[in-house]
Amino acid sequence: MVGLGTIVGISFPFFTYLILDLPADKIFSPLFFSLCMATGIAVGLCNYYLFNIVVDLYLRRIQSKLATFHQNLENLFWKNDNDLNPLKHFLKVDSADTIGEITEEYNIFMATFYKLIKTERKTANFLERLQKKVKMGAMAETIVEVFKEYFGADGGCLYSMENGRLRQVNNDSLDINNDAIDHNFCHDLLNKGEIVVFEDFDNLQVRFNIGIGSLKPNAIAYLPLTYQSQPVGLCILCTNKEFKADFFSLESRNLINQAAPFIYNGLLMKKLEVLAAVDELTGLFNRRYGMKRLNEEYERAKRHKLPLAVAMLDIDHFKQLNDTYGHQVGDEVLKDFSGIIGEEIRVSEFALRYGGEEFMVVIPGASAENCHLVIERLRRKAENLQINFPQHQLSFTFSAGIAVYPEESITNQTQLIKAADTALYQAKNLGRNQIVIHSSTNLPATLKPQSVTG
Fold this sequence. Notes:
It is built from twelve helices and 16 strands.
């Protein structure tokens, strides 16, 4: 800048002579020439010091903040959350000119970048937590917990989409009347994939648990979860004040979208578990899974002192039927028999293919007489069923044995099954197509095993 001032000082006398047409002896005198040179140098020095004081100082401040920012980036995106404060890297806006505008834009950039980094960290932590979960319930609990924290909700719940219906899999601090929820509205939201936030509603029966009572929320948000354009779940969040995050921002949508693949995987895992539990031919539980369920029901009955009835069913003369008509006909008989069982048992009851042509029906809370009523209905249906084939028509019957916990001779699941199996063989020895109820041998003779025919 001093050099530029010197050049201006030298050029000024010639500029004055050519443009203003002043006398040469006055312009090119040593005094005037020296004054022009001195003025040019002074202006150059002033500009130089002015740049160092104002512009250079400003640029050094930017350079210092950027250096700190860069160092934080190298430290694995801020190991300490205290470093995630954009105010530490802001510049003070000292003027309303271009430099002030540049400073303001720099601060906005820093705030935006820090917000993105915070969201990225929250998302990474969210994914890390979800990756450790396997069961649907644990995934749903994590999703609701993170969504509540991020959006500032006081309560929330999550529904999964299973077989075209919404099923609640998690509820956190929320009293929600499922019958009052408009499921058609929710299905429409899921199909459209639209986030909806309500701040004024009167009829929706949703309240918060607050320990000593409940409160009506001020705002409610519906967050549909979709994976590859397929609806997989719906999260409902409520707040007593206002949500602290914008549901429609890029960062919020990204966080919400991260949950959908895990819900999808959870549903897929659940389907695989069901497939692994089901006998392929009959559609009933297989022996491995059925025995697991029996163990659970036995422990529950034992803990709550409730009865538990088990019936063993065996198709009469099944080997002869197979040898005469072939395995395809035998398979059809097994499927039809399984269909009858599936029609007769309730949701709280279950049946399994114990092996070959032998089946087990488990009825929690049932007495021997109640269990007999169920099995007798099955026996009559099977007896009256006609199976039509191209060249012949078949019918079949089955024999059954019933045992019920508690009983003096039954102290575990194995003995319960053995007692029912013993009663089954007694039914076969009595002529088949019969039901026998097992009783302890130390009871009065009138209560010993006896046949019960239809």
